[in-house]
Each structure stands twice: as C-alpha cells, then as structure tokens.
Amino acid sequence: MEGAARVFAGDFSGSTLSVQVDNEQSAAFVVTPCGIWCRVVYLSGAMTEITETGDMLRCRLADPTGVFNLVIGGRNSPLAEQFRKIPVPSFVTVTGRAQLYRRNETVDLSIRPDHVIVVDRAVRDQWTLATAKATLGRLEQIHLARQGRCTDEHILTAYRHYAHTEVKLQALAEMIGSAVQSIKLTEPGSPIQSEVIRSHVRELVMEIMKSTKSPRGISIEEIIRLAGEQGIVKAEVLSAIESLIVEDECYQPQKGFVKPL
Questions:
Q1: Are residues 85 and 148 both part of a single domain?
Q2: pTM value?
C-alpha cells in the first residue's frame, strides 16, 4: 500500500512536473521542487475558508509556508457534509490525492481530500516538524545531486527538471526554517509543544554531528551555525548538546568540539 507523503504548501505550490509511472489509468505523481513525489498526501494546517461553487466544495488549508487548495466533488456527499461542519478557522489533518493539470501556459494544483479530522495546534506542530525533517533530508539529496553524488532517480528527476541552483536551495531551506520557527512563536508555554521542539532540536543536532567524518568531531560553533540556518536559536542548540552529552549520546574529544558515540 502506498504511503502518504508529507509536503509543505510552499513546496507543493511551486510544482510544475507530473510523472506517470504505472499506466495511463493510474494517477500521476506530482513532483515538487524539494524532490517529494506526491500522489497520496498527508497534510495539516488551519482550515481558513470553505466555499461552494456549483457541485464543488472548495477549501483553503494554510500551513506555516502557504496554502493548499482543496476540492471536494459532490456537494451532497458525506465528505462534503463533514467539511461543512468544521468551524472556520480550525486545525485539521487531511489525507487526499495530489493533482496537477496544465491549462495553456498555467499549472492548476489542488488536493482531492479523502479524509479530514479536526485536531489541535500540538498535532499541527508535530506534523510541521516531521514534514520539515523529511523535506530537509530530500534537499540534502538534491545538494548531493548538484555534486554528482546522488543515485536516487526520484531526486535526480526533480533536480533535472527544476534546475536547482545554490540560491534556489537556500530559499527552500529558509522556507523549512521559517516553518519550524513559526512553532516557537506560538504558545511558548505549552508543555507538549516544548517537548516536541526539544526532540526535534536533539535529532537535528545529532544529524549534524554524524554528518562529519573528522576524527576530532565537529565544532560547537559550526553546529550552532548550521542549526541557525533552520531557525534554531543558539540557546536551544547548546541545551540539546548538553543533554546529549549527559545521556552519553556524544562526547567532547577536545574543548569546543563534540562527536557522537
């Protein structure tokens, strides 16, 4: 069974490529600039608008990077009725199908929902962090593709189509960073949210540590710089490093440097 892809609106809205991989009767994949292949998607954000046009229900779902356009066919369907009952605005999760249509010189992107659930901000924040981590991983692969060091055909297809430059990759990385940053600016006192953020920072710091092959590890200042590019402040990085040392996940081979155990 095909898994649902997590994708940010800011990434999805820049998509101009669709790929048919099975047969003409099956749905095509929408390939995003960040290298995500979308057919079934799992989204979360704030439902900000619900309108009806003819037999169609149209909704706007906003995540920290932009807006998805949701289209529900059959105004009398159980799913349409379920959407009508959602108060606006509300945080929701949506599972649906990504669609890309070309009309003359324009690209029409939308999501056809299959399921919707009303959730709280903490669930939306967890989705944001998980999506940021997955998207960042794909950007790292695209960076390797620019160096001729990637063999993943899905990533290479996206890289060739979107002709990524360092400037474009930096803009996409900043989009991810702003999404993570938005979480820290909302309800800073929430225990659930604080724990989610701490867990994300720890995982990010460990990934940065493991990325270096130097015998002496990586400098703490370099970790702070790399994490800062993703919206993580210095105090949070230092706190994560301290906890990782205490829990024997890493150590200091020399002053100012850390290395995973």
A1: no
A2: 0.71
